[in-house]
Amino acid sequence: MTIFCDDRHKAGNAFEPAYKALAQTGALAERARAAWLRVKACDLCARYCHVDRIATTRGAVCRTGERAVVSSAGPHHGEEDCLRGTRGSGTIFFSFCNMRCVYCQNWEISWDGEGREVSTEELADIMLRLQAAGCHNINFVTPSHVVAQIIAAVDRAAAQGLSVPLVYNTGGYDSPEALALLDGVIDIYMPDMKYGDPEPGHRYSHVRDYVQVNQAAIREMYRQVGDLDIDKRGLARRGLLVRHLVLPNRIAGAAEGLRFIAEEISPDTYLNVMDQYRPCYRAGEYPELDRPITTREFHDVLELAELYGLRHVDYDRRLRRI
Known about the structure:
This protein has helices at 18-25, 27-39, 81-84, 107-110, 120-132, 147-159, 176-182, 198-205, 210-225, 254-265, 295-307; strands at residues 10-11, 68-76, 89-94, 116-118, 138-141, 166-170, 188-191, 229-231, 236-245, 270-274, 312-314. It has a single domain (7-314), classed as Alpha-Beta Barrel (TIM Barrel), CATH 3.20.20. It is of the alpha/beta class and 322 residues long. The protein is globular. Residues 1-12 have low confidence and may be disordered. 34% of the residues lie in helices and 17% in strands.
């Protein structure tokens, strides 16, 4: 098992985030206007609720209207090494979510919507403050339902000197319409690959077509940015990073998901296999979810990644091998 940080993927050339070129030509402002039009009959996530979110949030799963709701923002030192570096990843946690995971570890934010509404100007200012604090990137957490707000704020922030990579840290239930608007805006896509089987996606996250949507989204993200590029400091600057949270009783269908990544995306995909599952929120209502994962279950997924030839797998190496 190899950790993704080898010299083949390090580069010392000057790097400019993708959105800078769009901002300089005015194309980013055009994207922002196009995104706002879509909010009026919203298709900016794979729920396709088609609600006019400027007028109401009734009927919208995300319960978010014209303004994004932000729970918190600041340097985050718990992300992958290639994102957090020495000064942290500049995370902006958006409230609410387009998914309904019964085991959500941030349910106060994603289900209850703790946070406050922010204007485009305030969101741009948050990005600029995180950059000024030395953060290596701006990390949009749970962004799928606020794509229009993000693009508008990035356009404003870029005009005021924003110049660090943008990370799209998503549950992986993203529409092709949204991803088309983000093409050339986002530098690092970081989707979850929660399930390789549609049945648990329906049962535990209340989306019937998670696997179909997720795989299509990951294909498009990879088309836009390719394999993850790491600079000479060990920091990610462009590319795809996929996360997979190991669930108890092997209910996530990891085998099919990892096969998809290896055979249909790239064996060089940066994959983070995460072990931090614990029963949260409504997990106690589902006996198969109502316990932490075992060491054996975690290493089964690592062995699957090795079997399928995935070459760049990240995980907590402090975990005891069995």
